[in-house]
Amino acid sequence: MLVLDKLSAGYGSTQVLREVTMAVPAGSVVALLGANGAGKTTLLRTVSGLIKPMSGRVTLDGEDITGRAPHQLVARGLCHVPEGRGVFPALTVADNLLVQSPDGQTAEATELAIEAFPRLGQRLTQVAGTMSGGEQQMLALARAYVQSPSLVLLDEVSMGLAPKIVDEIFEFLERLALRGASLLLVEQYVTRALAVCDYVYLLNKGSVAFAGEPAELDAEEVFASYTGA
Description:
By secondary structure, this protein is an alpha/beta fold. The protein has helices spanning about 40-45, 70-75, 95-100, 105-115, 135-145, 165-180, 190-195, 220-225; strands at about 1-10, 15-25, 30-35, 55-60, 65, 80, 150-155, 180-185, 200-205, 205-210. The strands form two sheets. A six-stranded mixed sheet has the order 6-7-8-3-9-10, with helices on both faces.
């Protein structure tokens, strides 16, 4: 279980997160919603060690991981898929998968990636940067998949993609959850996020404005969060 306890963070002297407390239970899908600038990306970056918190604690399965380096968190089973196609554009699809594969398991990792997104099997020798945006996002997600992470942070993975590709990505996220991974999902398609999540948090100006099950969330609360009201 991932637990954030009164977590505050930001950039330099600018505070973005304000004593955020939340949890991602093991094996669950948690949606993190809110307007641009609410602090969603900052929260993910703080959890994954890219930003040092100003105060508060982050624990994973009872272990304090506050301020740990990203590579240490990867070793603990955490995977962060950032906004904006997290691939190596100059490498082939096969080499992108090789970089993420556990030692000596390249063939198995490639097989897993193709199982997740079959069209990648037709692109193994293609340079990743020459693929479509949707295919690059599939590759970014497949790279996470082959690591068999226990916790995956996903930042706007459907942004700018065609509806058919978005459908494929959400089907993949459901399969990833069924494999036992916990997901913390930042997503622009609110209805899609609410359809797959077990629990939802709304951030407004860096603070938690709502925490509960999707069925408890009022449309007015969503509107207020996204308009900053």
